[in-house]
Amino acid sequence: MNVFVFLGPTLALDQARRVLDATYLPPASQGDVCRLLPRHPRAVAIVDGAFEHVPAVWHKEILLALHEGVPVYGAASMGALRAAELDVFGMVGVGRIYEAFRDGVLEADDEVAVAHGPRSAGYAPLNEALVSIRATLERAEREGILDPAARRRLEEVARELHYPLRNYPAILAAAAGRVDAAALAAFRAWIPGGRVDQKAADAIEMLDRLAGDLAADRRPALPSFHLERTTYLQRLLDAPAVPDDPDSPVPFERIAEEALLQGNLLAQVRRGILLRMLLLAEADRRRVPTGGPAAAEILSRFCRARGLDPADLPGWLAANDIPSDMWERWMREERRLAAMLAVLEADVRERLPEYLRLTGDYGPLRDRAAAKARKLDAIFREGVEPPDGLALAWYFGRLDRPVPGDLATYAVDAGFRDVPELLRAVRREYLYAAENPR
Fold this sequence. Notes:
The chain is mostly helical. It has helices at residues 13-19, 32-36, 59-67, 78-86, 96-102, 130-142, 148-160, 168-175, 181-194, 198-215, 231-238, 252-260, 265-286, 295-305, 313-319, 324-359, 362-381, 388-398, 407-414, 419-435, and strands at 3-6, 23-25, 43-46, 72-75, 92-94.
């Protein structure tokens, strides 16, 4: 059909294909629309676009497509932003998000920002878009779950979070003490069936509109305008496409040599490989089900273990020469490992004191625990109890990282049974450190 759609985390590819038969491309970045023009597309649609780590799709290249008579549609995410800016030149905007930006109701780009996994993982989203959070809160208010004041306060809480950390568990945790507890409980129970994905809805509406226009051979009216072919535009037209999976130019033997020169680095890596292989083999032997955490949760854990902001993951994969087939295998293995570790968790906790004795860490930890117990007995008799928010902010500040949005997942990954056990430990450490500053 010679129709091209730039799509990423906003909508699953199989859903999109059920609405419109087209060639689906990764999120648009600078130069991608230009590179399509020699193929004489019948139409181009932009849902998702790259940002932060690579230059975003350029207004001028969309203008060039329109100038050459190619209809360009936009909705939901980057497409909605560009359509709101270029609809006077003929770009077709569709959906509530586009209309909100067009009318000035929304202005900040981070309203639609979503961190996501790579192409090989289906661009699995790692957070909730603020526009969808707003739509969900509005629906909750309409249905009587939230009153107007609670809805506004939850919007404020969501807006205050950095976009990769926006999810409902994080919002509910941050809203504790700022919104009535009963309202939060009602909203938490309602979310699974009431959540609104406004970006997906707008994307589907746009694809449906484009499918209808193509079937009826309708072409949007394209106003005539003068397009200046600047030096910058010509450079963009002349730039070669960047390959998706460039091969590493450095032989691995030379990389291994560098690892050997780091002392015990290679020994640590070998130990990690052996442990991973043995756990996967044990999972097969025990026939552990391959379920486990969802893909988005696995991606979140993967990023957290490496100190990555989820938005940095695509750049990290590229910087480490990780091809798509390797990434897909990793994600399958990570789910298997998570399921296996859940089976072994009780055994791990039981053998922890024994292993600490083996490593030599047991004695210092025992002495510190005894000193803490003596000090805290006196403090607790005085009725001192720090607020959870204060203790958490102090503790994660000491770790030089923000308080996790999903505290429950963090607690389990860190080895605690649940959030209450983590909070008890953090409160005790906060009080002890206050009495024993370093």
